[in-house]
Each structure stands twice: as structure tokens, then as C-alpha cells.
Design a protein that fits this description.
2 copies of one chain form a homodimer.
Chain A (H helix, E strand, L loop, with lengths): L1 H7 L2 E5 L3 H12 L3 E6 L3 H9 L5 E3 L11 E4 L6 H7 L7 E4 L17 E6 L16 E5 L2 H12 L5 E3 L2 H30 L9 H14 L1 H4 L9 H9 L5 H17 L3
Parallel strand pairs in A: 1-2, 1-4, 2-3, 4-5, 5-6, 7-8
Antiparallel strand pairs in A: 6-7
């Protein structure tokens, strides 16, 4: 009767009180799970968290053995995962999952349970801003058959995009996210700087940026590519490159990325 | 009575039949202007265009002297602007505007009118996809006081974001758009390649990409910047850089952009 079991929901302890912890707790509760406790090493943060409509017990004690929960989800900074996992005392047979895109499953190796796993939501969360969790891809990795089954049930109870991946694949996803998201965002910072040093506002570009990304998502970035490098408009490329000579590093980025686009679209 | 004049609308000739021509014509008509004619050197394209609910006369003749219009808007490829402008025979005192972000105002220098200007919508248009034109920034430049007045009326009749800029500013805007839009889009192509060469789909990243850009637009790209370079996580930077050694050019882009982010956020 797995269906009946799922409907009843899991009892879950949340380790951490940041944005990821908050959004996961909120969505898990909305899907019929129960948040039993919220742990933070600073008790005030744990208490603050439970003020947000959670019936959870706030705690800063490592010893969670008396907590009525079968799953503990860690949403804390990458660097703290190993230490906190080693210090927690969890109920027998409890499952412990971390939510990091970069840390291996083995970061939970010192926990007092073998039921460890990774429960990695491929999304950025902002406090107070709703996210449609059903569309967020969850990348899962499990140590035991039992934790695999639990991870799968947990993830599919809130998302339609559930993928089991291994640590190598997770590293590849993280690298591609750095390029697609962090680097794109920085391109906007550079553009903002260029505009502002000429007394114009980045606001001017916002509608174009938004539509560019919508298009890339709708038809794929290759089909959506435009601009002088895509058109092999060498005259404009030269002119723009030369206009950047007061900022050597931006000029280098301009040259390298333009060259890569030129090469990318030539036979 | 400029208000009454505006309400009556202008009579406008459209030169070109691509996406920009189509969206401008549609939105101008919706705002009470009349599209008198549509020119394309291929008459079939002009005829096809008028099938889309325009009451305009399709033509492929350079001689437009009998057309009942006071404004002609050129939305054709950059390279064709000078030649077509030199060949058209426009009614006396007619205004001729081009819509290019890169070509100078003087590209219209051979036209048989002094009332020339630039009517540059800072947006990318897709056939069949509605755009809220009222939010599209229009960057205007005029040769005569009279064309300045007409440009201003025309632009404010469809958009709330109207800016007079000079040719230098337009070049700066275009450069910043290349960096913010074309380069960001290419970052997504690179990320897609990394995923696909590891048998994963770019679809995985789409929700994260969309939210990243929403955040950059909402709170500004500097505040929105995340990732290993922003965190000064040199271990992850090294690991990711080394994992790219099978693609030297992508590795170089990774190194250069990461270094720029590191430098950008250090005091």
C-alpha cells in the first residue's frame, strides 16, 4: 500500500533555516508531510523559522533521537555538511539527505545511519517568493535501496521532475549551471557597467534580456542566437572590440566569446 | 491641437516585411495609425504581409510618391538601408526613419527628404508572438526639429519608454545588448553542450535559468550573482576548470569569466 503510505506523508526533520530549508519545508507541508522539528545551531533562528506557520519543534541540540521523524533533510552551507552530519544523533534507521549540488553523497559518511542520500533541487530560492516546486527538477542519489525508495517517494510527492543521477552527473549539472546561470548573470553585470559608465541605465536593456532568455528556453539557445558574431559581421565585431580598449579584461572576454560564437556556427 | 492630431493618427508606409516590420505595423495600427502601404522588393512578400489583416497597399516599386503617407518606417536588414533609402522616391516632406541599432542616422543621407530619423525598438520580435510594446524602450534620433517632433509623437503613441539618444549612445546600447543578450545566450549553448555530451538534457536547467534571469532583473545582476567564483570557492573553480580540459576554448572562457567575477567582487 505505498499509495496510502504516501498520502499519509512522512514525518520530517529540517536541518537548517535558510531559503532552501524554508521552501522545502513549506512545499513538503503543503503536500501532506509533517515537519516535526527544525534544527539550527542558533536556537533563535530555529524559533524564528517555526513562527512561519510551521508546527515544528525548534531545537539547537545535536541529539535528535527523540524526534518523531523518519527523514531528516539538511539544507545548510556546503562546508558545514560533513561536520553537522557527524554530530547529529538521529533516531534508528532514520534517513538523512543533503540538498547540495556540489558535495558528494559520502559527505554524510559520518552520520549514525546508512540511509543517506542526496535530495538536490535544481533551483534558486528567494525568501518570500513563491516557486512552483512541481516544475523544479530534483536530482537524487541514494546509498541504500531503502533510501532510494524513500527519496523517490519524497521527491515525486512535490515535483514532476525527478531524476536519479550519480555524483559525476551531478558535477556536470553543477558545472553547466555555473556557465548558464552564473556566467550569464555576470554578462549582465558587465553590460550594466558599460551602460552606467556612459550615463545610461541597465533598465533600458531589461525587456530585451527577458525576451532573449524566454526565446532561448522556448526554441533552444542555438536557434535563438543573434548578434554580430552569429551574423559573421566582422566590421561590427572589430568596432565593438576597439571601443572596449579602456577595459582590457572586458575586451578579452568580448574577443574570446565572440570568437567562440564565430567558430561554433561555422561548418 | 496636437492631442487631436495624435488621436487621428499618422498615415504610415512600412518598408520591409520581417518581424520588426510586422510588429511595428500591428502595434501602430492598434494605436490608431493607418498603414498605407507595405514595400518589399519581392511583391509576393508584400502581398503576404497585407494578408495579415492590414488594409495596406502592397508594392515593390521604389516610387512611392503617390502613397498617402507622411511617415515611412524602414525595417530591413542593416546592409540594405543605404541603398534602399537612396532608391526610394518619397512624397515631398515625408519622414523616413530606420529601425536599426547599429546603423548611423546618416545611412539615410541619400534619401530625397531631410526629415530623417532613427526609430529603434530595443527588443527582439518573434513572428506570431505578442510583445507588450508599451514596455519596449524606443531609442530615437532625429535630423531636423520637425522629424524630432514626429518621432516623439509616433513613439509615445505606442510606448511608455521613449528616449532620445545620439549615435554614440546607441553604439553603447548595442554593445551592452551584445554582452547581456547574445553572450548570455551563448553561455546557454555551451552549458547545453556540456550536458548533452554527458547524455543529459538542457531541459533540466531551464527552470533555474529562468529564475536566475528573473532575479537579475528584479534585484540587479550584482546582488543576484551566485556561484563558486562569487563565493571565492577556489577548490570548486579548480575542479571545474580541470574537468574542461577536453575543450580548450570553453576552459579558457571558464577561466577568464571566473577570474573576472573574482576580481569584480574583491575590494
Amino acid at each position: 500500500m505505498p499509495q496510502a503510505k504516501l498520502k499519509m506523508g512522512f514525518k520530517i526533520g529540517i536541518i537548517g533555516t535558510g531559503n532552501v530549508a524554508w521552501h522545502l519545508a513549506r512545499n513538503l507541508e503543503n503536500s501532506g508531510h509533517v515537519i516535526s522539528c527544525v534544527y539550527d545551531r542558533e536556537i533563535d533562528k530555529a524559533k524564528q523559522f517555526t513562527l512561519d506557520y510551521f508546527n515544528a519543534k525548534p531545537t539547537n541540540k545535536h541529539n535528535l533521537i527523540t524526534i518523531d521523524a523518519s527523514i531528516f533533510i539538511m539544507a545548510i552551507s556546503d562546508d558545514a555538511i560533513e561536520e553537522v552530519a557527524g554530530n547529529l544523533i538521529l533516531p534508528e534507521e532514520a534517513h538523512l539527505f543533503h540538498t547540495s549540488g556540489t558535495k558528494p553523497l559520502s559527505a554524510l559518511g559520518y552520520a549514525n545511519t546508512n540511509n543517506i542520500g542526496v535530495f538536490y533541487p535544481l533551483q534558486t530560492f528567494s525568501k518570500g517568493k513563491q516557486t512552483d516546486i512541481s516544475k523544479v527538477p530534483f536530482c537524487l542519489e541514494a546509498e541504500t535501496a531503502e533510501s532510494k525508495a524513500v527519496l523517490s517517494k519524497l521527491a515525486t510527492s512535490i515535483s514532476n521532475e525527478v531524476h536519479f543521477i550519480d555524483s559525476h552527473q551531478r558535477a556536470v549539472i553543477h558545472l553547466s549551471a555555473v556557465v548558464a546561470c552564473n556566467f550569464s548573470n555576470h554578462m549582465m553585470s558587465i553590460a550594466k557597467g558599460i551602460l552606467e559608465s556612459n550615463e545610461m541605465s541597465f533598465d533600458l536593456l531589461k525587456p530585451l534580456v527577458a525576451e532573449t532568455i524566454n526565446k532561448a528556453i522556448a526554441i533552444g539557445p542555438e536557434a535563438a542566437q543573434t548578434g554580430p558574431a552569429r551574423r559573421k559581421d566582422l566590421e561590427t565585431l572589430d568596432k565593438q572590440y576597439n571601443s572596449l580598449q579602456n577595459d582590457e579584461n572586458v575586451a578579452k572576454i568580448y574577443e574570446l566569446v565572440s570568437q567562440h560564437i564565430l567558430d561554433y556556427y561555422s561548418e
